[in-house]
Amino acid sequence: MTKLIRCLFSSFIVMVLASGCAPQTTKIEEFPRLYEEQPTSILILPPMNESTAADAKEYYSTTIQEPLAYSGYYTLPYVITSDMLKMEGIYDSELLVDVPLGKFKEYFGADAVLFTKIKEWDLSYLVVASTLTVSIDSVLKSTTSNEVLWNYTGTVVVDLSGGVGNGGGVIGLALKVVVIAINSAMAEYVKYAREANYKALATMPFGKYHLQHNKDQNIQFIDLTPEEK
Amino acid sequence: MKKKVLLLLLCLIIPIISGCTTNKMYYFGDYSETLYAYEKNQNDESLIKHLQELDRVIQESKEKSLRVPPGIYAEFGYLKLKMNKPKEAVEYFNAESQLYPEAKHLMDRLINKVETQGNSELNSGAKND
To answer: What are the domain boundaries of chain B?
Structure first.
């Protein structure tokens, strides 16, 4: 029993320390507009790919719907919406920057639009630790007010070697996503891409279909952006 | 004192446990894997594999009494349309808007397109039913 207490207590200390490093704000302070407007449907726009990985766009767009759904939002089916945009000659959202956002409400019935710029998408295989490093710049904008509802700029690192490496320290370990083995197979890699998307969406307040919807205003906003870079 | 410790523990444990339950919301199976394969190489084989996976997601969700995830019915219908099955497509588009009212706008747009123009515009080069 004492062991259990000690274990839990130390994890509590770690949590306090980890959160202590981040600015002390809550989700509602960070994203007040989102709580005000209560968007439910999100249109995911084809990402702009500035990374050197040619596949980054597909990896991103095929793995973004699942984490958004788990956050409680209705994601308009990307396969359909991206085809419809292609028919209009739009292959990535660079061409959409100046389009009035109300058009997306009119055409797709979207409450909000997700713009994403992929800045880095690097898979590095090293003997000690293999990682997928993803740097993105995501903005969720309202189609009614044109305002920014949520945004994330930063780098997420997914560890592909799963706890084998010894770097990172306690806090590093706590934030790491445990994945099984190094496997360059395509299907496996999709999993890591999805994990990166889960991490990048971690600060988004929950939507209509999540049990915590409108109950997470005062949850502390933890800035997951690494300090360097 | 012991009671206080227990209370503190409870306060710590509850959020951790409730955090774990969120994964029970939906069943996605290998959706993103087969979707990626399809997006990467659009051919009959990858299309059929992805359709099979969508079907599995629908069946498994029902079995587990979970809500079918957003967009799954719509995507299933859309791919059926690509395979020249407009009637089935419309059924699935309707299923999507019944489950998710926020999809209705887009689904009605698609249904309208199918009914007025057949699926020729969505599937250029294919024969109409």
So the answer is: 30-117
pLDDT for the residue numbered A25: 85
* Angstroms from B122 CA to nearest CA on chain A: 9
CB contact under 8 A, B22 and A70: yes
Contact B81, B119 (CB under 8 A): yes
To the question of pTM greater than 0.90 for the whole model, the response is no
A192-223 burial code (b ≥16 CB/10 A, e <16): bbbbbbbbbbebbbbbebbeebeebeeeebbe
User: According to the CATH classification, is domain B30-117 in 1.25.40?
Assistant: yes
How many angstroms separate the CA atoms of B129 and B123, rounded? 12
Nearest CA in chain B to A66: B28
* Residues A189-200 pLDDT 10s: 788 888 889 988
Residue A38: what are its φ and ψ, rounded to 5°? 50, 60
- CB of A142 closer than 8 Å to CB of A43: no
Q: Where are the domains of chain A?
A: 24-203
A83 CB near a chain B CB, below 8 Å? Answer: yes
Beta-carbon-side half-sphere exposure of residue A139 (alpha carbons within 13 Å): 12
Q: Is the pLDDT of residue B89 over 90?
A: yes
